[in-house]
Write a structure and sequence with these properties.
- It holds the Pfam family Sulfatase.
- This is Type I phosphodiesterase/nucleotide pyrophosphatase.
- Helix content is 27%, strand content 22%.
- The protein contains 14 helices and 24 strands.
């Protein structure tokens, strides 16, 4: 009897084990079916990136018009000192989506038209702007908003790779339409398995300031406001109300918790009379932007809600708009490309930051560098091309130094006419040293200009060299001893009695025209047949037009032909092609008028 009872027990256990195994297998199968999209995709958070055009960094919480933003600020991460690296919409948006400074991509940041050559160059060089990169990593990507610079169909911008783009820049009353379309997009999103990236771009409070009736009544302040600022704040109140609806809709659709929400602006707005006329462009920029890099133009809000987190924090350290691209990738657990010039905010949020971030910015006729509260701004022709904003002459490039701790509104910056003359200003030695260091930082941050080289083997004790450019100016970079220079901007004349070989180097500033030169030995001009050029040492006489590639040597120094009396080469790449002759179409002009860009 005993062996039989053991067998029954074993069979019972075997049956129970088989039943349990079958149940577990079925459960695992159902989970796998559910996650067939990809477990990695489902784990990734959604991303909602909200831009409120022209929202200054000192508005939220001050005037009673931002209750929804204030609630978000108190329940998320507030970056108190966030600066954009460009001061008007198109370059600032491209900084968002490339993680690079404005000058690092081919699209100009001084004129409204984007030329065909610029657009094509952008598509060649920027293979992975943020929307496209996320799309390639199984995100579904949308843009809803008013930003005419995110499409190439008007001749105003470039396509950065959204799956779906709903642009309302051609509508007069766009704000409520944007909210309505956002609700439709959220309906579509909520039925999808993939994570989403939604870029939501409200144009209000960009000028012209036309808030709907009643919104200016919400302003609460003892400050005496003029009509423009009241209407500006009315538009802020209007957008804040619309954002409250969007937040509620995200929560209703259970999308809030697993979404990284980022709220910022593309630039600020000039409201201080000291900056009414830009010292850099001479343009009236009162209740406008894009003509300088003063703090009221570049200090904007940055509020972040992390996915699956209720972290509340206020961070006073400087952050920059180039940091947002890598931050999004970091929280989506995607690798950050090495070409990115920004730095993820994740270490700062996690209290792991070991070094302070510094600022570099660019806008029309202006470059700037900053550390903490101190800034050096330069009037600059560095990135300009011939056109409406610039006719080819290079004038004074002065510098303005300010410390916002001592001069909060940057009303009385220290003016420096020329870096070389700073020693005559009798400044405090530590301040002088700091300004020179800031100036060197500006030079190191900007892309390098091409460098031209002339190698000369004199035949007599009377050598003369003339270098000319039609536009811009010539800047000598390397001049050996024994040479006498006469520099006249577009013309440089060099005389020497040297009989041994020597080399000179120069750049064309800005890089808008190709230099012409003549070399004379004992008043006799060296013909082009005896001038060799480029990496391969081809005779200059072998090309008469469009010869840029002929002169290129790349990063390699050419092997100078021993018999060459004159050898010429270019180091640093081809000049950017830009033409100001392109006229804006009727649609583009109408959009810019509605945006307040064109009066």
């Amino acid at each position: 009897m005993k062996p039989k009872s053991v067998t029954i027990k074993q069979k019972t256990l075997l049956f129970l084990f088989t039943l349990l195994f079958f149940f577990l297998c079925k459960k695992t199968d159902s989970v796998l079916d559910k996650e067939s999209v990809s477990p990695a995709i489902q784990k990734r958070p959604n991303v909602l990136w909200i831009v409120i055009d022209s929202l200054r960094g000192d508005i939220i919480g001050r005037y009673g018009v931002t209750p929804n933003l204030e609630l978000f600020q108190k329940t998320g991460i507030n970056f108190q000192y966030h600066l954009v690296n460009a001061a008007w919409t198109r370059p600032s948006t491209l900084v968002f989506f490339t993680g690079k400074y404005a000058s690092a991509n081919p699209v100009n940041f001084w004129d409204y038209p984007t030329t065909k050559s610029e657009v094509e160059a952008f598509y060649r060089s920027e293979k992975h702007p943020l929307p496209k990169l996320l799309k390639d990593n199984s995100f579904v990507t949308y843009m809803v908003g008013n930003n005419p610079f995110l499409t190439d169909k008007f001749g105003l911008g470039v396509n950065v790779g959204f799956d779906s783009l709903y642009d309302f820049s051609s509508y007069n009353e766009d704000t409520r339409r944007i909210t309505k379309k956002t609700f439709e997009v959220l309906d579509e999103i909520s039925s999808q398995e993939k994570p989403f990236f939604l870029f939501l771009n409200y144009n209000d409070p960009h000028k012209p300031y036309t808030p709907p009736p009643g919104f200016t009544n919400r302003i609460q302040t003892k400050e005496i406001l003029d009509e423009k600022k009241m209407n500006y704040l009315g538009e802020v109140a209007f957008v804040d109300e619309e954002l409250g609806k969007v937040f509620e809709e995200l929560k209703t659709k259970n999308l809030w918790d697993n979404t990284l929400v980022l709220i910022t602006a593309d630039h600020g707005e000039v409201m201080h009379s000291a900056h009414a006329i830009s010292p850099f462009t001479g343009t009236n920029t009162y209740y406008g932007h894009g003509q300088d890099l003063f703090l009221e133009n570049i200090h904007v809000p940055l509020l972040i809600k992390l996915p699956g987190s209720t972290l509340k924090q206020s961070i006073s350290s400087m952050t920059r708009s180039i940091d947002l691209f890598p931050t999004v990738l970091d929280y989506c657990e995607l690798p950050i490309p090495k070409s990115i010039q920004g730095k993820s905010l994740k270490p700062l949020i996690g209290n792991l930051e070991t070094t302070k971030r510094t600022y570099y910015g660019e806008t029309r006729f202006t470059q700037g560098y900053g550390e903490g509260s101190e800034f050096l701004l330069q009037r600059s022709y560095r990135f300009h091309e011939l056109g409406k904003f610039w006719q080819g002459s290079v004038g004074s490039e002065f510098y303005l130094y300010s410390d916002s701790k001592k001069d909060p509104n940057q009303e009385n910056p220290l003016r420096i006419s020329n870096i070389t003359s700073i020693k005559n200003m009798k400044l405090n030695p530590s301040l002088e040293k700091k300004i020179i260091r800031f100036w060197k930082q500006i030079r190191s941050m900007e892309p390098k200009l091409p460098l031209y080289h002339l190698s000369i083997q004199p035949e007599s004790k009377d050598t003369e060299i003339q270098i000319r450019v039609p536009q811009g100016t010539i800047r000598m970079a390397n001049v050996p001893d024994g040479l006498v220079l006469e520099e006249k901007g577009k013309l440089v004349q060099i005389h020497t009695k040297r009989t041994e070989a020597f080399e000179i180097s120069f750049e064309v500033y800005p890089d808008v025209s190709f230099p012409e030169f003549t070399v004379l030995f004992s008043k006799k001009q060296i013909p082009k047949t005896e001038i060799f050029t480029g990496y391969f040492g081809v005779s200059m006489a072998s090309c008469s037009s469009n010869c840029d590639l002929l002169y290129e040597s790349g990063p390699q120094r050419p092997m100078i032909i021993p018999k060459a009396k004159v050898y010429f080469w270019k180091e640093g790449g081809q000049k950017k092609s830009y033409s100001s002759k392109q006229e804006l179409g009727t649609d583009a002009l109408e959009i810019l008028k509605k945006q307040g860009y064109v009066q």
